[in-house]
Amino acid sequence: MYVNFETRGYVYIMASRVAGTLYLGVTSNLAKHVSEHKSNARGGFTAKHDVHRLVYFEEYGSIELAIEREKKLKKWKRMWKIQLIENMNPK
After folding, report:
1. In Å, what is the CA distance from 3 to each residue of 28, 33, 36?
2. How is the chain split into domains, by residue range?
């Protein structure tokens, strides 16, 4: 498998509403992924639970670093994720 080490990576969190369902993902193309989630083109969890609002993201110099961060964030408690979101995006 070929991995492009120059590809930027993004960790992002989407929400259904304030204090609603959260979805945490990773991508190399944030705008495209968010657009697909909003239009339900990706189907699955986000479509089923109406998770369409981008509430948080982090940018990394490589997709590998973003994947590493995503794995760590997925182990976090929900409250910690909400605090992370509210620190960057209080509204």
Report:
1. 12, 19, 23
2. 9-88
CATH assignment, 9-88? 3.40.1440.10
Residuewise pLDDT in 10s, the chain (91 residues): 455 556 899 999 999 998 899 999 999 999 999 999 889 987 899 889 999 999 999 999 999 999 999 999 999 999 999 999 999 988 7
The beta strands (E) that lie in 1-91 are given as 9-15, 22-27, 53-60
How far apart are alpha carbons 50 and 62 in whole angstroms? 29
22 close to 13: Cβ distance less than 8 angstroms: yes
